[in-house]
Amino acid sequence: MEYAKEYTKKEVIIRLSLFASLGFVAIVANSYWFQPMVEDFGNRPHCYEFWGFNGADYVWHILFIGLPLSLFIIVGIAMFPLGIKGIKEGRFPPRSVKVYKRTAIKTGAIAYFKSVICILSPTVVLILSIWGYTQVSDMPPIDKQKLDYSLCQN
């Protein structure tokens, strides 16, 4: 049985340290910047403008198109190349991919299935975003008469 190439101990420590550092920065940024901003936007969307468009007008666009599209970009960058290489080579993981632990290389139908899953996962999220685009026009508009513009003074 053939096994995929593994990272060395040094590479594992470097990569895990890098991922832990990036994860810590992401958690801190989420806690102190992103989450408060999203909560504030949820409470008073009419006080925000994006590229000259009022946030209250585009709440549904952000929820139904923007969030799934962002997820598609993040997941697609990681998974599309892996899936395409796996299908081309007929094995999974592909030759150019290193792994953290001893992993048997799959060939045949199993390799094809895993590669297709790597391609389909972000594709499903893209389809969700496209579906969201078709649903936005059916969502009720936000009544701007009920919004308190005195909240926007901060």
Radius of gyration: 22 Å
**Element order, helices and strands?**
HEEHEEH
- Output the structural class: mainly alpha
* Mean pLDDT metric: 90
Query: What is the approximate shape?
Result: elongated
Tell me the number of helical segments per DSSP (H or I, 4 or more residues long): 3
Helical content (DSSP H or I, runs of 4+): 55-70%
Oligomer: single chain
Question: Per DSSP, what share of the residues sits in E-state strands of 2 or more residues?
Answer: 5-15%
Record field, number of beta strands: 4
Number of domains: 1
Task: Sketch the major β-sheet.
Answer: 2 strands, antiparallel
**Widest sheet: strand ordering:** 1-2
What's a concise summary of this model?
The chain has 154 residues and is mainly α.
What is the topology?
Blueprint: H1 9-43, E1 49-50, E2 53-54, H2 59-89, E3 91-92, E4 106-107, H3 109-136
Antiparallel strand pairs: 1-2, 3-4
Helix pairs in contact: 2-3
What does this structure look like?
By secondary structure, the chain is mainly alpha-helical. The protein has one domain. The chain is built from three helices and four strands, in the order αββαββα. The strands form two sheets. A two-stranded antiparallel sheet has the order 1-2. Strands 3-4 form a two-stranded antiparallel ribbon. Helix 2 packs antiparallel against helix 3. The protein is elongated. It starts with 8 loop residues before the first helix and ends in an 18-residue tail after the last helix. Keywords: Membrane, Transmembrane, Transmembrane helix.
